[in-house]
């Protein structure tokens, strides 16, 4: 059997077999009086503080000049029990110094972000969450701007659209005033996942696509809730928070007055999602168009099996961050109006 031996206490005339075992705290007994004095007055605490500051400086330097060594590594095992032990057992006496988990699939890894420092990623994630939450609170500002600018009168101020101010076609003016704000708002909402994906990949440097989709799902859902709240209450979240600070019970008054009056809007919303939005999602026009293009322009008999697998029969991933928030929003709407107006459950059941 192997034994831990302190060679300082070996007898000169004896070999390693006669070594004395180290007892817990044995080394501390033989330290100098000065060293033990420094330990009692808290020198070890100061040393740990200096070490922590040094680590934070390393993080800042790495964020500026880039890392020369990756902070993430992969270890391959030959048996499953070793994988379970390594993934579940603490591998270092310092907490969170060495974090282990089961490795994701290679296609799920964003390899350009794999060397990112985990502390820097966490700091950027907190900063992004703060500014995105602030954007959700102030979401009424872009909505108000859309309502003010997406009108025929505003478009007439554009040089090449000045003919709208002299046009006598009232139907065209009513059409622009009625549909242009809706189209502009839908365009803005559709751009949000693209912005969230860019933030997660290029700013936060998340290391897996599944983590990116998870962040998009959460943030997109919160922004949809903010949009619905502003639509229902006809006011900004900032104003509502201001009212809640002075009278917290007013939240129930605001929701009690506004929710029952807009049930027709949400019934129309679910009907539109069922008849127009959901078929577009199920058709998956992007992969469908790509497959039809390859089938019409290429001959399968002239292609190899690898080309067929990569071009025509390639597996397409689901953008969970784009699709799931809409489903969750429908669930929230149905649960909210189940008691107020049970008829909405019919449209929710048809949707699902």
Automatic annotation (TrEMBL):
Transmembrane segments: 130-152, 172-199, 220-238, 328-351
Protein name: CSC1/OSCA1-like 7TM region domain-containing protein
Ranges for domain CSC1/OSCA1-like 7TM region: 127-352
InterPro entries assigned to the protein according to its UniProt record, in alphabetical order: Csc1-like (IPR045122), CSC1/OSCA1-like_7TM (IPR003864)
Cellular component annotations (GO), alphabetically ordered: plasma membrane
Entry keywords, A to Z: Membrane, Transmembrane, Transmembrane helix
Pfam families assigned: RSN1_7TM
Molecular-function GO term, any one: calcium-activated cation channel activity
């Amino acid at each position: 059997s192997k034994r831990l031996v302190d060679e300082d206490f070996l007898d000169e005339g004896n070999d390693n077999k006669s070594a004395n075992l180290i007892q817990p705290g044995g080394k501390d007994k033989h330290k100098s009086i000065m060293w033990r004095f420094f330990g009692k007055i808290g020198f070890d605490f100061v040393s740990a503080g200096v070490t922590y500051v040094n680590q934070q400086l390393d993080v800042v330097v790495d964020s500026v000049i880039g890392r020369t060594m990756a902070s993430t590594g992969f270890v391959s095992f030959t048996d499953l029990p070793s994988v379970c032990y390594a993934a579940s057992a603490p591998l270092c006496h310092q907490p969170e110094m060495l974090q282990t988990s089961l490795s994701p699939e290679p296609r799920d890894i964003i390899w350009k972000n794999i060397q990112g420092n985990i502390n820097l990623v966490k700091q950027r994630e907190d900063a992004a969450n703060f500014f995105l939450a602030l954007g959700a609170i102030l979401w009424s500002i872009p909505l108000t701007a859309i309502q003010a600018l997406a009108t025929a009168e505003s478009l007439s101020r554009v040089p090449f659209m000045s003919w709208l101010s002299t046009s006598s076609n009232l139907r065209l003016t009513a059409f622009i005033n009625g549909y242009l704000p809706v189209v502009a708002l839908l365009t803005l909402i559709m751009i949000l996942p693209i912005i969230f994906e860019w933030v997660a990949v290029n700013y936060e440097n998340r290391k897996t696509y599944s983590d990116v989709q998870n962040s998009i799902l959460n943030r997109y859902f919160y922004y949809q809730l903010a949009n619905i709240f502003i639509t229902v209450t006809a006011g900004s979240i900032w104003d509502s928070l201001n009212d809640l600070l002075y009278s917290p019970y007013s939240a129930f008054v605001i929701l009690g007055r506004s929710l029952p009056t807009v049930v027709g809007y949400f019934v129309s919303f679910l009907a539109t999602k069922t008849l127009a939005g959901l078929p577009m999602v199920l058709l998956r026009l992007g992969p469908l168009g790509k497959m039809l293009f390859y089938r019409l322009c290429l001959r399968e008999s002239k292609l190899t099996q690898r080309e067929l697998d990569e071009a025509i029969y390639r597996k397409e991933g689901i953008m969970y961050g784009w699709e799931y928030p809409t489903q969750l929003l429908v669930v929230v709407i149905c649960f909210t109006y189940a008691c107020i107006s049970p008829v909405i459950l019919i449209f929710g059941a048809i949707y699902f």
